[in-house]
Structure formats: C-alpha cells, structure tokens
C-alpha cells in the first residue's frame, strides 16, 4: 500500500469548488487578521478532509452485502420500505448508517447487480438520526436486482445540514459491490433494505467502513451474531 495515499487520500471532484472558496476566504482572513487566517486554514483542511475519497478493499462473495457508507449503525431491524420497494415486501430488514461531518461521504454499491429503479424525492432536512428522516427528508432511492436474484434498496438521505445528494448511476446500469456511486454533502444517512429474512452481521452503535464492512450475508445459514459493549 502506498503510504502517501493514506496520509493524503484521493479527493472527490465535488469538493473542488468548496475547497477553492474556503482557501480564498482564508487568504482574505490572513490579510485582515492573522489569527483568523489560521482558523480559516483549519477549516480549509477540514473541507479537503470531508471530500476525501480513499480506496477500499471490498470483500467479494456471493450474497455479501457491503456497507455503502462510513459511519455509525444507528438502526437495525424490520421497517416499512420506501414506496419504490413497497411492492416487494410489506416489511424489510433495514440497516441505517449515520454519517457525521467527519466521515468520508462517498457512497458505495452494497451488492453487485442491476439498477432497476432510481427515484428522487425532495423533502425536509431533519436530523438524519431521526427515524422519520426515512420518509420526510430529501432522499434518493435505488432498487438493485442483485446477482442472487433478490432486490435490495439503497436510500441516500439528506441530513440536517446536507443540501445535495449526488447519485451517479441510473436505471439499467450494471453495478459492482464496493463501486462508488455517489455522495451526500454534509452530514447524512444511508439506509439499506434487505429481504425480511436476512440476518444482520452488524449491531446498532457499531462503526462501519463503506466498501469494506459486511452488513449481511444473504446466502449464509449462520445464526444471528451476538454482540457486547466493552
């Protein structure tokens, strides 16, 4: 592994304009008063850090569901799927991942397959930690028919200060697990909807890494995992 790529990771093109603005303001602040300039420099570095886009090592296996985002699992359990998926099952297993402003916000495909539905819904900008954010907030819904024949849902949800959802795939596209498909600016959530009989391999409160952490194995007969807080 290239050590430099770890210290200075790949940068997402969505952030170019923002970093340029932060840098310009920082120069002005240095001219006005040096201590303000240093604060501006810190903010500029944070902005670059927010839009980082590091490479990830994605586990490959039939039935593996990979985390679509970095963050904390804020909910695991049965939930009513969005209207795009409502015709599949009345209830599905939902795994929700909350991304703070310090997480990498690049989103990745959880399973290999074909995008059969892509629907955008305008909405509110409530805190992404709230359960009603799934139905009230601005969101982008993808339905993916996976390589094992099941349809799963991936929902990008704008958060309290997020004001743009970027989705780079469309209906009919073939996607691979771990592949980048979009991002959300600044602080948000991604929900994954799976067959109701799926057994989650993560627990609420667990930190996951997008493109690397396995959320579930849809073809495994492994019993539900036990977790403990230490």
Keywords:
single chain; 230 residues; alpha+beta; Glucose Permease (Domain IIA); 2 domains; 3-stranded antiparallel β-sheet; 13 strands; 19% helix
Task: Please sum up the structure shown.
The chain contains 4 helices and 13 strands. By secondary structure, the chain is an alpha+beta fold.
Q: Could you characterize what this model shows?
A:
- This protein is of the alpha+beta class.
- It folds into 2 domains: 3-50, no CATH class; 64-217, Distorted Sandwich (Glucose Permease (Domain IIA)).
- Helices cover 19% and strands 32% of the residues.
- It has 4 helices and 13 strands.
- It has helices at 3-7, 16-32, 34-50, 133-136, and strands spanning 64-66, 71-79, 92-99, 106-108, 113-121, 139-146, 151-158, 164-167, 174-175, 180-185, 188-194, 207-208, 214-217.
- Strands 9-5-6-7-11-3-2-12 form an 8-stranded antiparallel sheet.
- A hairpin with a 4-residue loop joins strand 6 and strand 7 (151-158).
- The longest helix has 17 residues, at 16-32.
- The protein is elongated.
- The chain starts with a helix and ends in a 13-residue tail after the last strand.
- The mean pLDDT is 88.
CATH superfamily caption of the largest domain:
Glucose Permease (Domain IIA)
Instruction: State the low-pLDDT regions, or none.
Output: none
The proportion of strand residues reads: 25-35%
What is the distance, rounded to the nearest whole angstrom, between the alpha carbons of the first and last residues?
31 Å
Q: Which fold name is given in CATH as the topology of the largest domain? A: Glucose Permease (Domain IIA)
Task: Identify the CATH architecture of the largest domain.
Answer: Distorted Sandwich
Give the % helix. Answer: 10-25%
Number of strands: 13
**Main pleated-sheet profile:** 8 strands, antiparallel
Give the ordered list of helices and strands.
HHHEEEEEHEEEEEEEE
Count of helical regions: 4
Strand order of the largest sheet: 9-5-6-7-11-3-2-12
Q: According to CATH, what is the class of the largest domain?
A: Mainly Beta
Q: Radius of gyration, rounded?
A: 19 Å
Count of the separate structural domains? 2
- Give the CA-based shape: elongated
**What class would the helix/strand composition place it in?**
alpha+beta
């Amino acid at each position: 592994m290239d050590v430099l790529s770890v210290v200075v990771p790949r940068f997402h093109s969505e952030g170019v304009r923002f970093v340029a603005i932060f840098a310009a303001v920082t120069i002005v602040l240095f001219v006005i008063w040096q201590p303000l300039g240093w604060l501006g420099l810190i903010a500029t570095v944070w902005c670059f850090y927010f839009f980082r886009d590091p490479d990830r090592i994605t586990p490959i296996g039939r039935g593996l569901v990979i985390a679509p985002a970095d963050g904390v699992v804020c909910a695991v359990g049965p939930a009513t799927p969005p209207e795009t998926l409502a015709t599949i099952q009345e209830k599905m297993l939902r795994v929700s991942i909350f991304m703070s402003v310090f997480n990498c916000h690049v989103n990745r495909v959880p399973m290999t397959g074909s995008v059969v539905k892509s629907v955008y819904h305008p909405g509110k900008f409530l805190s992404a930690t709230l359960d009603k954010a799934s139905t009230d907030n601005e969101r982008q819904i993808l339905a993916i028919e996976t390589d094992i024949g099941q349809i799963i849902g991936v929902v990008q949800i704008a958060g309290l200060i997020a004001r743009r959802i970027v989705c780079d795939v469309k209906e009919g596209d073939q996607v691979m697990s771990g592949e980048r498909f979009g991002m959300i600016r600044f602080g948000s959530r991604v929900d994954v909807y799976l067959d109701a009989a799926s057994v989650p391999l993560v627990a609420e409160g667990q930190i996951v890494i997008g493109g690397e952490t396995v959320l579930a194995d849809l073809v495994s007969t492994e019993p539900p995992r036990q977790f403990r807080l230490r």
